[in-house]
Design a protein that fits this description.
The complex is a heterodimer of chains A (273) and B (261). Chain A is an all-alpha fold. Chain A contains 10 helices and no strands. With 261 residues, chain B is of the alpha/beta class. Classes of the chains: A mainly alpha (273), B alpha/beta (261). At the A-B interface, helix 7 and helix 8 of A face helix 3 of B.
């Protein structure tokens, strides 16, 4: 399987010893400024532009409150969330299994490589209409679409992580009469875990794309439904609310997983001698 | 019964012969060291007994059964420790117990006495990278002992440690072994280590790998390593083994000069 090196990275560890405190504060300040500066410019622009089609963040926030009170936002988010979580769970489970097989067994690697490389390079959106023909418009089809998007980063990173585990641990496992599945549990999964989490983090972004793609192209539901409905009515503020919600979801998951990555493997800096 | 019987054992890697027709018997509860220069096949021999290396010809009979695979009644201690870096001390020690179907909690509590035995009480929650080399190998030893093997196979276990730690670990192993005698096959290239620990030292030479001598070590147990080293019998044994090892690198054209000395 091709190594997607730019997507494979070991967890970064940001250490902030006492002397660096000033710098840390400064960084926080920059972070918050960056966060504020875009909405401010956006707001100013919307005020200057003075068009009903260009709405500012304040109007979007007002629309969000309204839609939340109304209950439609929660309902739509619930539908999308279910598709997202089920899909990413399924994609991760399959990706994990295939990734371990490919990383562990040369035969599997050689046999599956053309498929994984080719499909990874294919814009998966192109497959969606075909999937719909096969699977229909329901919840199942949506989950499959999301799972497909989540699968690749997990599989590819897991395989890379498993390949990186020293072969000598195989001997250890064998000498203690470990079964193959026990070796997966004790050695392959924990050894590859930092890579697996990186894969999962990349899968989050792709899965959110997939949720919207799925909701647009199958039976229209969830946040995708809200976006379509409101934009067709030119209710720009309302149609942006789900978009912002998706952004926030992605951001939260991404940040959380990044933290997990950094904490997961204190040993990674200094493995066995 | 926990003896090892190696019969006419040969091992070749492709066209490269490591050794041919090795015969060795290790008795119940006997501590045997296999001493030899690098390249004599002593580690390969041990790995075959451990079941993680194939044989080319001959057989290994462990506890009366012909054996080609790793067995639950043997345990191997590796030279480079091979601790799982993502597991704490206690979970590394519990590794073999978990593989035998114990739950995590059970395995930990069963591992605890072995953690204490190797002097790591209080360090149960540390990770291997937080330990010195000597401590890491204590974990490796405890992991092997925790599965209560009848036969302990040790592949230059102290070879990666500094000289001082090495002697401390020898004392430790003497103490542990006296308390709970087992059959031990101990591979080393250190003469002192072989004498201090063993009931019998098997000396190997290379090209081709072969056993040239079985030397019993007549010291009583329990042993005091420091007192042993001061004993004249130790010096004699040492010289005897040195002579056997020193012949080793002298190939045919050097033999004359060697005998002339």
């Amino acid at each position: 399987m091709t190594r997607v090196t730019d997507r494979i990275r070991t967890p970064s560890r940001v250490s902030r010893p006492g002397g660096r405190r000033g710098r840390a504060n400064q960084q926080q300040l920059l972070w918050w400024s960056g966060l504020l500066i875009v909405p401010v410019i956006w707001q100013l622009y919307s005020m200057v532009a003075d068009s009903t089609l260009i709405v500012g963040p304040i109007e979007v926030a007002e629309a969000a409150v309204e839609m939340a009170v109304d209950g439609e936002l929660l309902q739509a988010a619930g539908q999308s969330g279910l598709v997202f979580l089920t899909g990413i769970a399924a994609g991760t489970a399959v990706g994990l299994a295939i990734g371990i097989l490919v990383g562990r067994f040369r035969t599997m690697d050689v046999m599956l490589d053309p498929y994984i490389s080719a499909l990874f390079a294919t814009p998966l959106v192109a497959v969606v209409p075909i999937l719909i023909v096969a699977l229909g418009f329901g919840f199942g089809a949506k989950v499959v679409i999301v799972a497909m998007f989540a699968f690749f980063p997990v599989a590819i990173n897991t395989a890379a992580g498993v390949r990186g585990i020293p072969r000598e641990f195989d001997e250890l496992a064998r000498s203690f009469c470990s079964s193959e599945l026990q070796a997966w549990r004790d050695i392959l999964v924990p050894g590859a875990l930092p890579y697996i989490v990186t894969g999962l983090r990349l899968a989050v972004g792709r899965s959110l794309i997939a949720v919207v793609v799925a909701e647009f192209s199958t039976a229209v539901t969830g946040l995708g439904f809200l976006i379509l409905r409101y934009s067709r009515r030119f209710d720009m503020a309302e149609s942006l609310v789900p978009v912002v919600l998706l952004m926030l979801t992605g951001f939260v998951f991404y940040t959380l997983l990044k933290r997990v990555e950094a904490r997961l493997a204190p040993w990674i800096l200094r493995t066995s001698e | 019964m926990a003896n090892v019987d190696i019969k006419d054992l040969s091992k070749h890697f492709g066209s490269l012969g490591v050794f041919d027709d090795i015969n060795l018997h290790v008795d119940d509860n006997e501590f045997v060291s296999i001493l030899g220069p690098s390249g004599c096949g002593k580690t390969t021999l041990l790995r075959i007994v451990a079941g993680i290396e194939d044989t080319t010809a001959g057989s290994v009979i462990v506890a009366g059964e012909e054996s080609r695979k790793p067995r639950p009644d043997t345990a191997l201690v590796f030279q480079n420790f091979r601790l799982l870096p993502w597991r704490t001390v206690e979970d590394n020690v519990a590794y073999g117990l978990r593989l035998r179907g114990r739950s995590k909690a059970e395995a930990r509590s069963l591992a605890q006495p072995y953690v204490m035995m190797v002097g790591l009480a209080g360090r149960e929650k540390k990770y291997p990278y937080q330990l010195s080399g000597g401590m890491q190998q204590r974990v490796g030893l405890a992991r092997a002992l925790a599965v209560q093997p009848d036969i302990l196979l040790m592949d230059e276990p102290f070879g990666a440690l500094d000289a001082q730690t090495r002697e401390l670990m020898q004392d430790e192993l003497l103490r542990i072994w006296s308390a709970d005698r087992k059959t031990v096959m101990f591979v080393t290239h250190s003469i002192d280590e072989a004498i201090v620990l063993s009931d019998r030292v098997v000396v190997m030479q290379s090209d081709p790998g072969r056993i040239v001598e079985h030397i019993p070590v007549p010291f009583d147990r329990p042993r005091d390593a420091a007192a042993m080293r001061a004993d004249p019998r130790f010096t004699t044994l040492r010289a005897e083994m040195w002579a056997l090892l020193r012949q080793e690198p002298l190939s045919s054209d050097m033999t004359h000069r060697a005998t002339g000395e």
